[in-house]
Please model this.
Amino acid sequence: MSEEETSRYVRLRIDLVLEIEDADRLAGAAVDRIAQDPAMRTEERTHAEAAVREDGAEALAYLVDPVDLVAALPGAELVQASWSSERVGYDPDAEEWDFDDEDGDD
Model:
């Protein structure tokens, strides 16, 4: 691809840290989402439901869909997406969590 062709592509990176305040409500919402997925096979559904009940990070992965963030943007088409969630040790006072300075601009 030429530079002109590749300059049309933009990688959008979003880093979010969420606090799970009610794991049962979160898991319930994820189970509801899984139940509404017509493409999911029964054995896959059973495994997914168990995973979201056990781990809030798994529940979030089923509920947060970056495709939804950009689906209605005019003049842009999503060509690739991936996402994951993981538990992290979060300390809001630690320098490593200061996202304001991440791009190196002062």
